[in-house]
């Protein structure tokens, strides 16, 4: 372990974790997806922090957002000096909101992703080549089924809590309607029961930008140069939706990038252009274009309100013992607070115990990922209450 | 059971003493959650709260209380019928835009509801208007006419009449006299319409 990581491993760091793989659904026991398609074998990459209690009652499942991965906290043993910790390190660790001295925290890369779990860039055992466009359409429900299989494998039949933001929050809600008896507490953060037309619209523009890149080649690009330009533009659009008017104004305003006056051309003039180009080109090195297509579509399909029976909707939660803490952010325009309030309303109507708080923050949808003591203290206090009851 | 602590506002102490152990309680405008926390600790109450102020609501949740941040006038609409044994509205009625509508919601979602409010019929208030000819101020209602959040003036008698007219049965009425200097208070039983600084009413909807 190198020196830099050593110094980070004080009180408060979740420490080092390692990415583990769990494979299930070997033919003929493939997983039947919501669409009816069958998929298997499926590999799920996951990491854990803390210890599972002898009573196996302290497990917390963390669900990541659309471009996230299993590395929610701490460091890897072989991280280079100066490496950033996991994406929710501010929330997960000893003494933090998700206290790893008390909880056994699990985070798995989602089905369809590209950070170790089976997705369109994985090898299709039938052809020996990446799935590409042959990867079946999947849903948030299918993601939850793979997480359920992982928990079965780990011998966990009850969760102290499921928590996640954005698309992770959708997984939290899907867990509650599919396995209410397994979930003692649910913490959906900066999320929605279903995408608004605005959210679908942004996703569609992101998808179109990938599909319009000739290198996308109808999803068959794993033997050639990938559609990095399309993917970068998709990320630029996404990134704007994660910020806010205030955040952009504060961060960039109309400031120019490396120049005194505008250049009357299509090169970068403004800092915000430079920033978005940087975000886009950084993203293509860690994410797969097809994964973006599949996961955004799953998020667009997600609808907890209108569902064709026997699929369970939010109304079927009547009588569930699950306790809810719903959190939204004032400047989130992707999943605005009114959508969180609709969720709270629906939960109250079926008689569920729900807490709700809107957090003041000017950094938009991304606020849930930015270190902030308020989220930790809400989550910590709420879980204390759940443990007592 | 421990005694209700002196640090809690006197009318809340009286209300706390009236709640039966193990009840389901909704506290509207629960502030930082002192009443709910006390009830949970000492009366094993299953409590919920509604608080408009984000910082206070967050504080409640952080201390382990079940609280929804929002406007009580809207939040009460979503609860199922009779899902609480007690709904508490303490010292807020005088600030509510549509009191009749709010109280109806309270009677719908609660088996009983408890309302407390400053008594505008207190003799000092009557005298101020009579002798000075100006909008009265008191320790409980300290604002000027132009900056007060208290948009309604209610006397104990007003509330009794209202309850009778809309068919609410007053299960209990407690008149409270507080001393603003010491923060102490006492329950009074004589000349309450004139002497009470606050009235606390426990209400059941007649069926």
From TrEMBL, chain A:
Substrate binds at residues 235, 366. It catalyses: L-homoserine + acetyl-CoA = O-acetyl-L-homoserine + CoA. It is an enzyme of class 2 (transferase). It comes from the Bacteria. It holds the Pfam family Abhydrolase_1. Its main location: cytoplasm. Belongs to the AB hydrolase superfamily. MetX family. It comes from Desulfofustis glycolicus DSM 9705. Transfers an acetyl group from acetyl-CoA to L-homoserine, forming acetyl-L-homoserine. Residues 59-369 form the AB hydrolase-1 domain. Its EC number is 2.3.1.31. This is Homoserine O-acetyltransferase. Homodimer. One of its GO terms (biological process) is methionine biosynthetic process. GO terms for molecular function: homoserine O-acetyltransferase activity. The lineage of its organism: Bacteria, Pseudomonadati, Thermodesulfobacteriota, Desulfobulbia, Desulfobulbales. Pathway: Amino-acid biosynthesis; L-methionine biosynthesis via de novo pathway; O-acetyl-L-homoserine from L-homoserine: step 1/1. The active site is at residues 166, 332, 365. InterPro entries: AB_hydrolase_1, AB_hydrolase_fold, HAT_MetX-like. GO terms for cellular component: cytoplasm. Transmembrane segments: none annotated. The keyword Nucleotide-binding does not apply. It is found in: Cytoplasm. Keywords: Acyltransferase, Amino-acid biosynthesis, Cytoplasm, Methionine biosynthesis, Transferase. NCBIfam families: homoserO_Ac_trn, PRK00175.1.
TrEMBL record, chain B:
It comes from the Bacteria. This is Methionine biosynthesis protein MetW. InterPro entries: Methionine_synth_MetW, SAM-dependent_MTases_sf. Transmembrane segments: none annotated. Pfam families: MetW. NCBIfam families: metW (TIGR02081). CDD domains: AdoMet_MTases. It comes from Desulfofustis glycolicus DSM 9705. SUPFAM superfamilies: S-adenosyl-L-methionine-dependent methyltransferases.
């Amino acid at each position: 372990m190198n020196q830099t990581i050593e110094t980070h491993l004080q009180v408060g760091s979740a420490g080092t974790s390692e990415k583990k793989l769990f494979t299930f659904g070997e033919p003929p026991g493939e997983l039947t997806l919501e669409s009816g398609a069958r998929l298997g074998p499926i590999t799920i990459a996951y990491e854990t922090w803390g210890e599972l209690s002898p009573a196996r009652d302290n497990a917390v499942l963390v669900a990541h957002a659309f471009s996230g991965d299993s590395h929610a906290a701490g460091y890897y043993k072989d991280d280079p000096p100066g490496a950033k910790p996991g994406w929710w390190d501010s929330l997960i660790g000893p003494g933090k909101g998700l206290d790893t001295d008390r909880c056994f925290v699990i985070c798995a890369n989602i089905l369809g992703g590209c950070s170790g779990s089976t997705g369109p860039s994985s090898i299709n055992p039938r052809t020996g080549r990446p799935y590409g466009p042959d990867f079946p359409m999947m849903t948030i429900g299918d993601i939850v089924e793979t997480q359920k299989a992982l928990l079965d494998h780990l011998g966990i039949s009850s969760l102290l809590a499921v928590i996640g933001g954005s698309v992770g929050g959708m997984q939290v809600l899907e867990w509650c309607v599919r396995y209410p008896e397994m979930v003692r507490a649910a913490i959906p953060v900066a999320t929605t029961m279903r995408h608004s037309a605005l959210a679908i619209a942004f996703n569609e523009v992101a998808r179109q930008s990938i599909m319009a890149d000739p290198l996308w080649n109808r999803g068959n690009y794993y033997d050639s140069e990938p559609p990095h330009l399309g993917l970068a533009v998709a990320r630029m659009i996404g990134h704007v939706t994660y910020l806010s008017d205030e955040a952009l104004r504060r961060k960039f305003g109309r400031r120019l990038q490396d120049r005194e006056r505008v250049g009357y051309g299509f090169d970068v003039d403004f800092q915000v252009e430079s920033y978005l180009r940087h975000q886009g080109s950084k993203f293509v090195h860690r994410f797969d274009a097809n994964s973006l297509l599949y996961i955004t579509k799953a998020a667009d399909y997600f609808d907890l309100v209108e569902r064709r029976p026997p699929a369970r909707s939010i109304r079927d939660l009547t009588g569930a013992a699950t306790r809810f803490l719903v959190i939204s952010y004032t400047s989130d325009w992707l999943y605005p607070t009114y959508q969180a309030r609709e969720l709270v309303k629906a939960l109250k109507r079926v008689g569920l115990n729900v807490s709700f708080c809107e957090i003041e923050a000017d950094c938009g949808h991304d606020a849930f990922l930015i270190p902030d003591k308020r989220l930790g203290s809400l989550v910590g206090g709420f879980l204390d209450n759940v443990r007592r009851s | 059971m421990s005694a209700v602590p002196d640090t809690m506002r006197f009318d809340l102490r009286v209300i706390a003493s009236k709640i039966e152990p193990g009840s389901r309680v909704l506290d509207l405008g629960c502030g930082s959650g002192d009443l709910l926390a006390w009830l949970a600790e000492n009366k094993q109450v299953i409590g919920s709260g509604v608080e408009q102020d984000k910082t206070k609501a967050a504080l409640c949740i952080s201390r382990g209380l079940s609280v929804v941040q929002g406007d009580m006038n809207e939040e009460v609409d979503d609860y199922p019928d009779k899902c609480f044994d007690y709904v508490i509205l303490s010292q807020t009625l005088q600030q509510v835009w549509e009191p009749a509508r709010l109280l109806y919601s309270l009677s719908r979602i609660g088996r009983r509801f408890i309302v407390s409010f400053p008594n505008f019929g207190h003799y000092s208030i009557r005298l101020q208007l009579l002798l000075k000819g100006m909008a009265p101020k008191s320790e409980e209602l300290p604002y000027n006419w132009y900056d007060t959040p208290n948009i309604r003036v209610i006397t104990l008698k007003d509330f009794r009449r209202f309850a009778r007219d809309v068919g609410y049965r007053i299960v209990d009425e407690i008149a409270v006299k507080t001393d603003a200097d010491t923060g102490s208070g006492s329950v009074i039983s004589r000349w309450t319409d004139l002497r009470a600084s606050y009235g606390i009413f426990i209400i059941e909807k007649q069926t």
